Amino acid sequence: MVNRLAQSQSLYLRKHAENPIDWWPWCDEALETARSENKPIFLSIGYSSCHWCTVMEGEAFSDRAIAQYMNEHFIPIKVDREERPDIDSIYMQTLQMMTGQGGWPLNVFLTPDERVPFYGGTYFPVEPRYGRPGFLEVLQAIRRFYDTEKGKVEAFKAEILGNLQQTAALSGVTAELNRELFQKGLELNTGIVAGSNPGPSFPMIPYAELALRGTRFNFESKYDSKQVCTQRGLDLALGGIYDHVGGGFHRYTVDATWTVPHFEKMLYDNGQIVEYLANLWSAGIQEPAFESAIAGTVEWLKREMIAPTGYFYAAQDADSFTPPTPPYQGGAENSTPPYQGETENSTPPYQGGATGGSEPEEGAFYVWTYAELEQLLTAEELAEIKAQFTVSRSGNFEGKNVLQRRHPGKLSDRVEKALAKLFAVRYGGNPDSVKTFPPARNNQEAKNDSWPGRIPAVTDTKMIAAWNSLMISGLARAAAVFGNWEYLELAVKAANFILDNQWTDGRFQRLNYDGQSAVTAQSEDYALFVKALLDLHQASLTLGNGEEAKQLPNSQFWLEKAVQVQEEFDEFLWSVELGGYYNTAKDASGDLLVRERSYIDNATPAANGIAIASLVRLALLGPNLEYLDRAQQGLQAFSSIVQDAPQACPSLLSAIDWYQHSTLIRTTPDRIAGLISQYYPTAVCQIEADLPEGVIGLVCECLTCKEPAKSQERLLEEILQSQTRV
Fold first, then answer.
1. I need a labelling partner for 474 at 20 to 30 A (CA). Which of 80, 312, 481, 591 fits?
2. Strands 663-667 vs 683-687: parallel, antiparallel or unpaired
């Protein structure tokens, strides 16, 4: 028997549809039921590719004794954090207030009247273990506390609500946005990228991007920012965090050596990493592995992550099922895998996964036993793979091998051939023949469908506007840097899908489920989509007047769309009283404790940092100086946090960089591509066909233009001066 979540569009919520817990989605009816029955709310928040969310669903949430007690004494509500990041942000902040730490699954207990949390935690096991109490014991203690300690509950509620309101108001003394503040923040954030610890390793791209901005200054610093940024690029492109067989980046590694990943692949990571590696290349750090990782990630996108309508899917799980036997047992010099792509008479070596493992295993789709490598590769290929990758008989992950490169540079043809053989085992055909690989949309499809190679991890096929925007920006930047028209074409298709499908009753929508838009857009959707449109504007300038340019919208189209989206963003989310943008629109915040303004960077950049930078870009590209005024107000609103905790907000510091060093380059069509492909992080370009005779470019610093440049050397000199000016 299924519960209410069976009707949900969210893959994460549907995963809980067969739990014996009487789950509610977050809705007015659930909240009113809690009030009328005076039952505490058990709010559980997670996402589809979260490993420990999946574990808790299969354990505590499937336990009938726990469900019986939960249903009788609480109102259980499930939230997909990818659908409602505003709800997740508020309650994650409260959990951190209560316990000093956070994570997912996020489980908090709320008062039924005002929905204020009074207890919380993350993963709860069925029975006591890992130093954590059993979940039924927790539920009984919480209900007893709620019934017998009303005074303490009220005190908790008042303290939490007061702290939330104070944090949301950001009532600290404003600071001067001077060069010293920017330089201090730059050094601290570069130190975060340079630092090492024994724990997990995350991409932390907002920090790395800020550190890369520092490479153009001559600031005195304890860090060599170019070396720091290069190393982060190498960690990403060479590490086990990158899928060297199929392309694409995993979410993070569980170790400090960038070796063993937590295997889920998130669209938001891949979009940011593609943009970062392209920026490294444009800054003169032209490591072949960077270009190769970008190309491999784009191939993964095309093969596994693009809907027929052009948008990008959200994520792929870390776990996957295993077939009963390996699909390929060859290994001789001239042998080839028995399945070479989809032809009329070919038969996949493995038909379905129903007889495989009953539970998915982490990383099963990606890792290799040494015995498999011996069977699949020739002796020469295996020897070279061992020389170039961290491969051994004992393995580096539970007796298996995660491929991590030992050296930078370009891989040999022999290694590429060996990787292609591994690809064929995983996907059932060689890289040239497997151009698309249909997603497994849930565990049932993964286990029961016929797969030509290994059983793939489940793909969450929803469209998230903010995450698509990050990928659009990454592709647009890579297209401009490498002159790759295909990258731009992919970005354009995704952007056009959003423009054509994500407005309902005149309002921007965050999600799309198989053609149906849903959930009013939040600040990160607006901010990142405006940035993506501006990035497309710049990349489109590089196309020139050839056939490629005729097939895609011109640059002015993207600028006009950016202005339109920005107007809606300003109307519904700008805080007139405080400055900055609220996370949610003024007409979509009635169910929230507070209206937050995102300024702290996490796995994705904070909306306000991105939004303020775009305001500066819009001011440079158009005559509306209200954008510049709004950017100044926004920066002033968050100046106290930049001064007190610069390590929390690298995107705001990047916005300060834009504000202090904004540069407009006006030049001729034949020079535009060469300039945009270079690393000028606070510059935008415009085509100026009617320059004065002998002039090749004009450089303007916000409201002041420099002397017209009559030579390439002078033009580049003026750009650099503007980008580093005091």
1. 80
2. parallel
